[in-house]
Structures are given as structure tokens and as C-alpha cells.
Design a protein that fits this description.
Number of helices: 15
Largest sheet: 6 strands, parallel
GO molecular function: nicotinate-nucleotide-dimethylbenzimidazole phosphoribosyltransferase activity
Order of helices and strands: HHHEHHEEHEHHHHHEHEHHH
Oligomer: single chain
Family: Belongs to the CobT family.
Bound molecules: alpha-ribazole-5'-phosphate, nicotinic acid
Shape: globular
Number of domains: 1
CATH class: Alpha Beta
Helix content: 40-55%
Protein name: Nicotinate-nucleotide--dimethylbenzimidazole phosphoribosyltransferase
CATH architecture: 3-Layer(aba) Sandwich
CATH superfamily: Nicotinate-nucleotide-dimethylbenzimidazole phosphoribosyltransferase (CobT), large domain
Mean pLDDT: 93
Structural class: alpha/beta
Strand content: 5-15%
Function: Catalyzes the synthesis of alpha-ribazole-5'-phosphate from nicotinate mononucleotide (NAMN) and 5,6-dimethylbenzimidazole (DMB).
Pathway: Nucleoside biosynthesis; alpha-ribazole biosynthesis; alpha-ribazole from 5,6-dimethylbenzimidazole: step 1/2
């Protein structure tokens, strides 16, 4: 078995006994039932993921920023030059980016992973070079990657997850850097959810109206060029409850049910990821799968992570049980991806940066939610009278 196949085979869904025990425990704690709102669900989710109640405190956290370039940049979908990707990698390694400041704030380590930057980068202590290619091909003209490249990038992400957990991380946070990657994200979201390009495409780093119109057309062409436009003309297949209807569609939107693990190399999930994803999207999908296979929670950042999580979920639906949505970014496609995955974001601050910034901000909330399970007294132990019937 390949590393990817081993990883997919190792992923388990939330443990129902741990979930039930965590829910019951929440209700015994000295607070009114449900008083911690969404944080109670986070604690229950982590219990299910860890198959233990209470679950381990998800700290320390480790951020991995996956960096890569995009052939679709040539279509004028971002106001920023492509070399900003490599320049920002230098900034992360020097400690000067927003992600570094937020990581310091929450005590997370920062590792940068070059899976596809268009230039060779000088070695640095926190840089892993696992370059699959010097950027992707232009997804608006045909597949961005070959399936073999997508697998290599997935396996690069799995390797990073394993390494960070080996080094002591008990929570992983996704990060990305890749100029033009919100275009690939929008295309992935359309392909996996069946949404229309106009619904899923946003302004990214802040494009003007004219560029946004072009970007929507580029996403539309990408879906057509790769046979992913779908018989429904791109209408939503979302049942409105965050779950897609049954069945996998070869030339159309891909359900998160996806192909069985045995078909991974020929399955539509991998082909879709290779067709319109970026190398960092594939690596982030692998990072999510790696975390899930180790039962270590992974906090998702913004729209790039959300679109990568759709690919991870199409490859292994149970991987979603190990994910927490750190935040909801301003990109419209992000909300669509989260709804499709059935994930509720913890923070909403109109961030539109990426790098892992929104995921990092959520880490203290996730820790607080779990700490409650370890430290808060029960009505019995504290001698507090429960409310009457
Ligand atoms: C200085 C700078 C720092 C960033 N950090 C993250 N991104 C974010 O913006 C890029 C995606 O937006 P688009 O698709 O519009 O190019 C990604 O690199 C993402 O990580 C940045 C972008 C810039 C310019
Ligand atoms: O959603 C994000 O994380 C995002 C949005 C705009 C640009 N870069 C990233």
C-alpha cells in the first residue's frame, strides 16, 4: 500500500461512545445545560475524534504553511505578482508575517513547506522543501496537475502531519501561501459542491470589479476545460443541510462520499483535485488526512483550507470528524465549503488573509472548550444543587 492508501485506511469516524460520554459529562458540569454553546460541541467533537472523554488538551499547536505557485496567475486573476509567494515564504521564515505574530500569541510553532514554489528557496531551519513541481499548469486550459503530482503533494502533507505530531504537536493548524490560490479554491468548491462560479468566487487579495468578472469567467472555463461543469449546469446539489445527495458523478460535482479508498488513484476525487487544485491545496488535504489518521485534531483556516478539506472529505469522508473550522473568511466560497462539510466556524472577523491566521486565532477557544471537560466541577463533586424539573 502507498502512504496515501495507508493513511486513508487508518482514518476512523468519531467514536460514538466517546461522543455520548462527552455529552453526558457536559450536562453534569456546574453550568446550565448548553451554556457554553458551540464550545460544548467542539469538546464533544474532539472527544469523538480522539475516542476518549475527556479528550486530550489540544496543545501545543503547530502551524504548517504550504506554499506553491499557480499557472492560472497568467490569466490576471490576482493583482499581485507571482514572486510574492516566495517573498512571503522568506517573511514567514524571518518571523515577519501576520501568521508569525498570531502563532507567537497562541504558542504555536511555524513550519513552512515548499510543495510548489516557482523558485528554488535557500535552506532555512523551519523550511521543509518537498517540491512536487515549480507551480501548477493553468487550470483554465486543462488539468493543473497530473494525478501523480496530486498524490505526491498529498503525501507531502501527510509526511508533515506525521513529523509535527512526532515532534510533540497535539493540534495541527493549516496554512497556505500561493498568489492566485483563491481562484483554484473557488474552482475546487464549485467542482465538489456543484455551486456556480459566480457564487463561489470572491475578491481574494482585493481585486476590482473588472478583475472579479474575469476571475469568475476563468473559474467557469476551468470547470468546462476539465469536464467538471456538471449536468446540473453548476446548480447546487447541497440539500441545504450541508450534505450532498448520494452518488458520485464522474463529469460533475463530486460528492463528499467519494470513491472507496481502493479506487483512490483513479477516483474522481483525486482527478478533480488534480484538475483544478493547487499543489498547496493537495498538500493541505494530505495534512488533514494525516492528522485524522493519527486522531490529532486539525484546525482549518480560510477558503484555501476549506476547499482542500472538500478534497480530503471526498477521499475519506470520516476525516471531517477530526476537523474544526477555525473561522469563516470573507471569501464567499468559504461559507459554501463549510456548509457542505457540515462545519461551524468558531470565529468570524472578516479576515481575508490565509497563512493560517484564522485557524491560529481559534486555537485558544478549542483549548478552552477541552479544558472545561478536565477542570470544571460536576454538580455532585461541588455540592451545587441542580435545577428542579
Ligand atoms: C502580501 C501578501 C501576503 C499574504 N498572505 C496570505 N495571502 C493570501 O493571498 C493569496 C491569495 O489571494 P489571490 O488569489 O487574490 O492572489 C494567497 O497567497 C493567500 O495565502 C497573501 C497575499 C499577499 C499579497
Ligand atoms: O479565506 C482566506 O483565507 C483568504 C482570503 C483571501 C485571500 N487569501 C486567503
Amino acid at each position: 500500500m502507498t502512504i496515501l492508501e495507508q493513511t486513508l485506511a487508518a482514518i476512523r469516524p468519531a467514536d460514538p461512545e466517546a461522543v455520548a460520554e462527552a455529552r453526558a459529562h457536559q450536562d453534569r458540569l456546574t453550568k446550565p445545560r448548553g451554556a457554553l454553546g458551540a464550545l460544548e460541541e467542539v469538546a464533544v467533537r474532539l472527544a469523538g475524534a480522539a475516542a476518549a472523554s475527556p479528550p486530550p488538551i489540544p496543545a501545543p499547536a503547530a502551524l504548517a504553511i504550504f506554499a506553491a505557485d499557480h499557472g492560472v496567475h497568467a490569466q490576471g486573476v490576482s493583482p499581485w505578482p507571482q514572486e510574492v509567494t516566495q517573498q512571503m515564504v522568506g517573511n514567514f521564515l524571518a518571523g515577519g508575517a501576520v501568521a508569525n505574530a498570531f502563532a507567537a500569541q497562541v504558542g504555536a510553532t511555524v513550519t513552512v513547506v515548499d510543495v510548489g514554489v516557482a523558485a528554488d528557496l535557500p535552506p532555512a531551519p523551519n523550511l521543509i522543501v518537498d517540491k512536487v513541481a515549480y507551480g501548477t499548469a493553468d487550470l483554465s486550459e486543462g488539468p493543473a496537475m497530473t494525478p501523480a503530482q496530486a498524490v505526491s503533494a498529498l503525501e507531502a502533507g501527510i509526511a508533515v502531519a506525521r513529523r509535527l505530531v512526532d515532534q510533540g504537536a497535539r493540534c495541527l493548524v493549516t496554512g497556505d501561501m500561493g498568489i492566485a490560490n483563491t481562484t483554484a479554491s473557488a474552482a475546487l468548491i464549485c467542482a465538489f459542491t456543484g455551486r456556480d462560479a459566480a457564487e463561489a468566487t470572491g475578491r481574494g487579495t482585493g481585486v476590482d470589479d473588472e478583475t472579479l468578472t474575469r476571475k469568475v469567467e476563468v473559474v467557469r472555463r476551468a470547470l468546462l476545460a476539465n469536464g467538471l461543469a456538471g449536468p446540473a449546469g453548476g446548480r447546487s446539489r447541497d440539500a441545504g443541510d450541508g450534505r450532498a445527495p448520494d452518488g458520485d458523478v464522474v463529469a460533475g460535482p463530486v460528492s463528499p462520499g467519494g470513491p472507496p479508498a481502493g479506487d483512490v488513484l483513479t477516483g474522481s476525487a483525486l482527478r478533480t483535485l488534480a484538475a483544478v487544485g493547487g499543489l498547496e491545496h493537495a498538500a493541505i488535504a494530505g495534512f488533514i488526512l494525516g492528522a485524522a489518521s493519527l486522531r490529532v485534531p486539525v484546525i482549518l483556516d480560510g477558503v484555501i483550507a476549506g476547499s482542500a478539506a472538500l478534497a480530503a472529505a471526498a477521499l475519506a469522508p470520516d476525516a471531517v470528524d477530526h476537523c474544526v473550522a477555525g473561522h469563516r473568511s470573507a471569501e464567499p466560497g468559504h461559507a459554501l465549503a463549510l456548509a457542505h462539510l457540515g462545519l461551524r466556524p468558531l470565529v468570524e472577523l472578516e479576515l481575508r488573509l490565509g497563512e493560517g491566521t484564522g485557524g491560529l486565532l481559534a486555537h485558544p477557544l478549542v483549548c478552552a472548550a477541552v479544558r472545561v471537560m478536565h477542570e470544571v466541577a460536576t454538580f455532585d463533586s461541588a455540592g451545587v444543587t441542580e435545577k428542579g424539573a
